[in-house]
Amino acid sequence: MSQRSPRAKRLRHLILLRILITALPALLVAQSQTDITQDSAIEKEILAIETQKNDAMQKGNVKVLEPIYGDSLIFVNARGQVLTKQDRLREFDSGSVKYQSFFQGDYRFHIYGSTAIVTGIACSVVDYHGRVNRIPRRFTSVYVKLDGQWRFVAHQATPASDDGGNTLSSCTN
Q1: What is the pTM of this model?
Q2: DSSP state letters, 102-141
């Protein structure tokens, strides 16, 4: 076995360090591009589910909503009422929630592995237990990937006001 001098070891470490320093930015950019591509694919998946869910809500189609909703769904409506999956499905099944018009938009996504947080604006006219609501609402919805499927597990809505950015211009209620 040959013994390397301390100088040769130091030189070897410096060369390896230089290679790492040179390669690291490229590796980080490649990882970032992969993350962006994966996030974009997840956003498309979630938007497709949102479209399916929103269509089913307008039609009161509980059979479509049931598998989309996670079993532990916590749904906080714009009135501050906390509903479970069963509560929410029962509202549609009984007809106590009826959408007269429906629009959601201004979506923003935050992806954290198997969790997706979606924010946006809802501009619908809804007959909720005999009272019509036309007030635009900002919402936050949470999806979690469980057993390979995205599930709607949490929702919070609050009345929205135009913040001067004209974000409610798409609401024609």
Answers
A1: 0.75
A2: --EEEEEEEEETTEEEEEEEE--EEEETTEEE---EEEEE
